[in-house]
Amino acid sequence: MDAGMADNNARREAASHGSKPDAVTTGLQQLFAAIADEPIPDDFLKLLDEIEARSQGTKQ
Amino acid sequence: MTRVETGVLTPQAPPAAAPVLVPEDFRRDLLAAIPALRGFARGLCGNRDLADDLAQDALAKAWAARDSYMPGTHFRAWLFRILRNHYFSLGRRAHRFAPWDEALADRVLVTAATQGSGIDIADVQRGLATLPAEQREALLLVSASGLSVEEAATVMGCAIGTVKSRVSRGRAALNHYMNGATEGPPAQIRPSA
User: Which of A3, B69, B82, B118 has CA 20 to 30 A from B75's CA?
Assistant: First the structure.
């Protein structure tokens, strides 16, 4: 999710409440979007591989 | 089998089978949810490294508990619930949580300072850190990640009205902070529930 999408989400949420997106909502969504735009650290991918391999080893 | 008026036995439709969870699909869904999980964790604890540890623990727990996930239900909400339960359980055991690291937060967030909207994202994160954990959690789930109030109530294990109230109070406090409150964030970000 990039910042533009976060802005769109904020506008959509505000529209559903019949109001303009407030700075808090926009800021929170941009914070989330900024983190989501970061590349996923290798640790996470390794972890998924490890637990998958471990669970397959357990089944066999 | 069902007997019908013609006297002929016709096969009855089998009961709807529970959707089957395919491990490859589960892994794919976990992978897709990692950015949101990291965002929720970082918003909760305010520390990048600790948040990534929390998110990784949540992934491992989700994998171990994958048989309890009902396919077709909200996957992200299920993961958020695992992560927040882990976060609060750690907080209860440790009686404290990571200190707010302002220098680190500024360094981590500097590249995403305003995203063109005039809002300082680092300021948002600092403001979040000043909120009670339950308000911070409600804001992150509803306003940041886009869960419905009903879904957030399931994640948080509380009533819908409670979520609404926490969102409302958290939003007011964060708005106050972002509009020039002079207080700094607390020394520690502590889960309070």
Answer: A3
